[in-house]
Fold each of these.
Amino acid sequence: MPQRPALDDLLHAAVSGVGGAERPGQVEMAKAVAHAIDEGEHLLVQAGTGTGKSLAYLVPAVAHAFEAGKPAVVATATLALQAQIVDRDMPRVADALAPVLGRRPTYALVKGRRNYVCLNKLEGGFPDDEDGLLSVGQVDAAVGRLGQEVVRLREWANATDSGDRDELVPGVSERAWRQVSVSAHECMGGKCPLVAECFVERAREAAKDVDVVVTNHSFMAIDSFEGRQMLPEHDVLVVDEAHELVDRVTATITDELTGAMVMTAAKKAGRMSENTAAMDEAGEMLAQALEPLEEGRMLGVPESVGLALARVRDTARTVQSDLKPPPGQEVDGARQIARAAVDEVHENAERILEERELDVVWLNRDQRRGPVLRVAPMSVAMLVRDKVFEERTVVLTSATLELGGTFDAVAGTIGLRGEGAPKWQGLDVGSPFDYPKQAIAYVAAHLPPPGRDGAGDDTLDEIEQLVRAAGGRTLGLFSSMRAAQTAAEVMRARFGDDIPVLCQGEDQITTLVRQFARDPRTCLFGTLTLWQGVDVPGSSCQLVIIDRIPFPRPDDPLASARSQAIARMGGNGFMAVSATHAALRLAQGAGRLVRRADDRGVVAFLDSRMMTARYAGFLQRSLPPFYPTTDKKMVLAALARLDAVAPPPVAVEEPALRSLTGARADADGTEHPRPVAVPPPAPASSRSAVAAGHAWTDEQDEELRDAADAGMQLDELVDHFELPEETIAARVDQLGLTIASGALFD
């Protein structure tokens, strides 16, 4: 086992290699991470923007991997940070540390199976999905966009080195991608005839021999809960963007059940079981039992629903037995897909019937799918404690881990407080930025508190004045898509061509952000994704507008259940759940402004409760220490001065092709994948309709109808269309369809 060089030498080499200068916070964090790894002690590190935190954990992670002979795992919440680590940070760190370590550190990007093309399915090893598009593509590429997409996928699959969907530019529809991909449950595993050529297996095999594995929170969580079988053996886990961990874990283990899901599973089993008719009837029974119920949380499973769920569970168990292959026969693709669907139905029905103490069960009603029964854990704290923090050192880091001036709120949600909690340390290394001199936190205290009817004329006038003073350069963060769209429409009418206004949902998020970053006169309005997923340093973003305090919806079943549980124990449910949620979002939103030492600007809060409410102090302490004011004239003058002297915008980096390990094909010495000629995106149909600011084409509408028929969930469509939930939901409503959706802000 090689002996690693001193951390100071490694950090100095890495910082020099990336052309930077060592920062006190970065050095302090790197030493704390190294100490935690050496002592086997968990660590929470708050590191403000500009600290260089990725370098501060990557260097000690590489050093440990070099010494221990096993990789360190880095899990992030967003694709943007994964790309930053794999495309920018690790290549530079690897080049810089190679002379010191005696070899170049290696790294890999690991994703879920659905992100890769399945060669067995491509070769006909699985039954075609709903409309047999593979055969359509084989026979006639001119039948339409979907057939052409499948032909493109075949050509790309023969050329790609990685099989990673993100490499395919422009992308394809979700419906076409389903023809060439399988879920983890549908995969045949070692029994697949093409397992030796499988992109997923090759990528994961390659990851076993690297020093740093980069993945996402959800994949890491599934791996932890299922026995760490997908990630290589490791004893160090770094969780970046750790403020998102609880929500990502909760989403990963949230289940749902509908009568249609049961009947679809029975249909997939088909002639492979003699009991599918009984299972189909159980699905109808469940749909009928759910039909008269009202939306909202269930404090107990009603008798009629319980009887239907028991029938679903029992018939699914019988079909499960029937789906076992006859002695001496291997599982084929059709049988594996049927087993996956029936297993899901059985497991979800059984879970709801168990009425676990910490599970929250609720009903949503959709126009097309009908009533949808959902179940999620009220708290994942003990699960994270037992499964994530066991048998490895975990370092959690983010720019927003201290809320209200303490780590307690975040630590409690991940199982690091209370009896039996593992040992951990908290550290705030601050930020190298001079926040009071670089940024102003302006509260429009003269505005009335926001109501439920959207922004009033006074608020819209305030937005106009701020944006005009800034000369554009504005990122507008809104608590609902409706508010963002309304503000965008009004501002476009008032500004004309002088100041372009983009709105989330009108194009892919990455495209909108690049357009915003390139043109300093442009504004970008949106919600959710933009609150924490935008990194636009420089003069293109000198004003961030936050329309209201982003509390969770009052009818959110999980938030209300958590609040009530805390209140029953004598705590303050509002402060522990709603105020903490809002503080985290506000800190993330405000953090969009200052991304470098030379950034200057204003964060404008258009919610006067930031000054007047009893919880205002808690929210204020969660924000970066900007210079606070309620003086509107001073703020307008400051924005005008910044606009007058603003430098040119920062250059925008474009997407890259990837190798088998997920690294940029030009960053680690590997060859570029062979280029494939791809057509430009299809033009919008002349019959396109606008919903939530996005022009929907006939082809996209067809995809939505197929998604509704297939029982797909909204998060899958969000990933495919790269549009916000609200935009997709708006078009779904126009078409009279139903797609399962998650909770949104008011």
Note: Residues 79-101 form the longest helix (23 residues).
Amino acid sequence: MARRITGRSHGDPRTADTRAKVKDDYRPSRDEILRYIAENPDRAGKRDIAKAFALRGDDRIWLKDILRDLQDEGVLTKERKQLARVGALPHVAVLDIFGRDGDGILLAHPAEAVGTGEPPVVSIRVSRGGSGPAPGIGDRVLAKTFPTNEATGPAYTGRVMKIFEKRTDAVLGVFRILQDGTFRIEPVERRQPELIVDKEFQNGAKNGDLVEVEPARASRYGLPRAKVLNVLGSLTSEKAVSMIAIHAHDIPHIFPTDVIAESEAVKPATLDHREDWRDLPLVTIDPANAKDHDDAVFATPDLDEKNPGGVVATVAIADVAAYVRYGTALDREALKRGNSVYFPDRVVPMLPERISNDLCSLREGQDRPALAVRMVFSAEGRKLRHSFHRVMMKSAAKLAYQQAQAAIDGVPDEKTGPILDTVLKPLWDAYAILKRGRDGRQPLELDLPERKILLKPDGTVDRVIVPERLDAHKLIEEFMIQANVAAAETLEAKKQELVYRVHDAPSLAKQESLREFLQTLGLSLARGAQMQPSQFNGILERVRGADNEGLVNEVVLRSQSQAEYSPKNIGHFGLNLRRYAHFTSPIRRYADLIVHRGLIAALGLGPGGLTQDEAARLEDVAVLISGTERRAMAAERDTVDRLIAAYLAERIDDRFDARISGVTKSGLFVQLPQYGADGFIPVSTLNGDYYIYDETARSLFGERSGKGYQLADRVEVRLVEVAPMAGAMRFEMLTDPKPLPGSKRSFHKAKGRARASQSRPGSRGRRR
């Protein structure tokens, strides 16, 4: 029931006269607020809730306090300004259909874990007369979910938006023939068991083949058995490790014949609906081994007397929308892939080579269609105005980052020498001005070295390097950021639907966790609901040059929310920008292609613009491409882990310098800075004491000695076990435990917290 306001309650600032006037007003109970959020997942922001319950003035302040209390208690979570019950399904979720109920209605579970305990059951509703195939048992679907609010039966109903490709119960593994002639499947997932294959189920697999297998029901004794379904390739060939990730993450990597045929039939774009910019000396600056070039840049001083010291910066981007039209086979395949995926040994492109490496690649000296933005900046780096143009361009030079930087540093070559004064120096002058604007904006400035794996011809690791970060890299990055901002601003001004690139501020829970960690290092982070990137930058500046600089940067990164795509704008916290959209890589990202189509439609730049049908689907598309981006990141990370594990497999018993990158009840995660690789030390292998986990201090400490190990500690470890195909490594601790920071009083408080934790089910330490 709602609570009638009849008297002055705790925290109610109203006077008696005010209360008398509103005695008929109602404030919703906590249960009513939670019920509204559950029933309206897409309208669960603070303003939505206030409007639903007709709350005004002081009642809105009261509501804000209630919602904060519910978040602090762990009842609610907040994402993109929308509140949801912790453990509740998101409004749009990926579901696996597992069966039917007594009435024949399909039932599904969420594909990913939601909270703790049993996964919720979703009743799948299929509309009659709908187009396309109907979902069935075993399908994976994308669905909008709605809570049922019924005491019995499924907790949610789901309306199917998309059916993914058929899912099977097959798992990946490496086929091995042992010395005794028996067959085994070596797992490629860390938690996957080893399997036995009987000869009749070998299906032609040879030693070292990557295979799909169907596990049989596990027997009471011995290893479970399996049969080989498909042979995917040999691990003795090049690119085998990335193939594991491609199959494990269901990444489409073979273009259908109709897509290839459509791409081959495309004719080069003409000057129709375009300005002729072929005389403008735009240049591409990319990695030396880049095969496609989707952005080109140019800059010149602004000759307008009203803008002294200003510059005009131009960014031209490949006009992919000229070739990839909505609803075609090319477009459907690009959306299905969502983005290109980059492995150390291969690229899985979003578009066929005919489009990505030929017609849309801004090749030196060749006519290419582009969508360009011309931006005018003041001497202080403030953007004054911008304009978009659909053009035909001709790249004046194809340059590598190191090549362009060397020319600026005084070592030009045959290609950069002739354009040094006319093209390169004006670009660097413009970058100096844009950098002033960036410095004033104060985006989050994380300093995390990006390691690059160099491979031998056979696809194995040669060495791991940290490439130097040049001003040439920063120049292109800042030009692209400003072009992305201009795209979002133009589409907003034209009231054209678009997909933003959004990045929410860190949640209150993550802020508090980071604050507790920083306190263990003697650092403090101010409290406040409206955190700014500059506050994190202040912390990072304090540890610059210190031993724990890298770790603090990583922990700050982990505290951040994940960037994603959305038709609803909440700004970009990390870049400290109010509006931001991806525009500069349409060859590699479907989100950028949507923005290109939106600009073409909004500005009347000819054919290939965003259609009304496409605009109506942007919410669903944003969910899909955010998912494909996360899929690509996971596949890339898994591949690097497997390559490094295989590289170090020959170094069992070697000692390594490491640092503790994670602390759990089960043990310590350690990172080898030289390789960027992670491994695990089980708590059961830590000798000499009974180790207790202190979550607040992020440490394991000995019950008797009080000594232990803490996040960020530098230690020496020995490599004792490697599972290359699973990308897993186990280490042994060689460094003795140390006294932990803080007084005896804080130690005993930590011990008390840990003992209280261990009194709950599922918490236990280890003794050796």
Note: Residues 444 and 536 are 7 Å apart (CA to CA).
